[in-house]
Write a structure and sequence with these properties.
Largest sheet: 2 strands, antiparallel
Helix content: under 10%
Distance between the termini: 39 Å
Number of helices: 0
Protein name: Hsp20/alpha crystallin family protein
Family: Belongs to the small heat shock protein (HSP20) family.
Domain SHSP: 1-76
Radius of gyration: 23 Å
InterPro entries: A-crystallin/Hsp20_dom, HSP20-like_chaperone
Mean pLDDT: 78
Strand content: over 45%
Strand order of the largest sheet: 1-2
């Protein structure tokens, strides 16, 4: 069973360059929306994200498998 997860966010990129005869200004503003299917159950409290050099890394750890548990059965 695959679980669908959606990531949304926004970004702003500004670039100002001024040289002797050139003045340039660029601006990128936008929103993004990505959905991916995860093949395992995840631990939402331990999700980490890092944005560096234009790359967004998202670390999503798998949830630990449930341990077997003992159930007492009453016999009559």
């Amino acid at each position: 069973m695959y679980l669908q997860r959606t990531f949304t966010g926004a970004f702003v990129f500004l670039l100002f360059a001024k040289e002797e005869h050139v003045h340039r200004q660029e601006r990128y503003v936008g929103r993004f929306h990505r959905s991916i299917a995860l093949p395992a159950v995840v631990t939402a409290d331990d999700v980490r994200a890092n944005y560096k050099n234009g790359v967004l890394e998202i670390h999503i750890p798998k949830a630990q498998p449930r341990l077997n548990r003992q159930i007492d059965i009453d016999f009559h």
